[in-house]
Amino acid sequence: MYNAVILAGGKTPWLQKAVGTNIRALAPLGGRRLVEYIIDALDRSGMIDRIIVAADSSEWEAAVLPQRAELVAVKTASMPETAAAAVAVLPADGKILFVCDDIPLLTAAAVQDFLRQTETVAADAYYPVIPEADCARAFPGAERTYVTLPDGRFTGGNLMLIKAAVVARSLDKARDIFARRKKPWELCGWLGFGFVLKFLLHRLTLTDVERRASELLEFKGKAIVSHYPEIGMDIDKEEDWQLLQSYFKNRK
Question: Model-level pTM greater than 0.90?
């Protein structure tokens, strides 16, 4: 059994006009709030013990979480700080499954597959990548960002399994990466010229990515290939929201 943390501090300004709230996790879709779909998938997987929802409690006072979940108060929207606040209330041993707050299509099967794959290889942290073909087949109208590697074309998932002990000692590095996330050239400089050149020449493999990330973060990371595109269907822009609205409407 694993403990899970839903990082529910995200805000999306254009959602305010569309659904009356800019808090992604509380946005209503298909008759339920986004966070409820995620909690349900984690619960039904049968592999999760505690489900923590890390969010600004002042904005969640009027919201009632399903009984299965616990709210942990944070005072920042920063993902590293939100993760640290949640980890502080969990045991220091074991591994924690972190889940983003904008993947309402998450399924119990996707959670099970990811966690079971991680159990076959030793590492400190695990991150899912999804082949483009799987995404295109399941969601032909969706626009995702893909990276081309000799192993194939992949997009990232919105889960991460990481050892609890690693989170605390990696907080400073996580802050650094989070600060650079929208500055590609700074991020490239941090990764190193050789790494970037290899990527530009299409010679960068998943193993190369794992190795470089492990060197920089000082813990062993492992990419897990998932064939469940639901974990990659997040809400970055209005087109994503409209696509999900159509999906839920047609599913009824």
Answer: no
Lookup: tokens for 210: 């794992």
Per-residue exposure over 64-99, b if at least 16 CB sit within 10 Å of its own CB, e if not: ebeeebebbebeeebbbbbbbbbbeebeeeebbbbb
CA-closest candidate to residue 77, choices 33, 12, 156: 12
Q: What's the pLDDT tens digit per position in 107-164?
A: 999 999 999 999 999 999 899 999 999 999 998 878 888 888 888 889 889 999 999 8
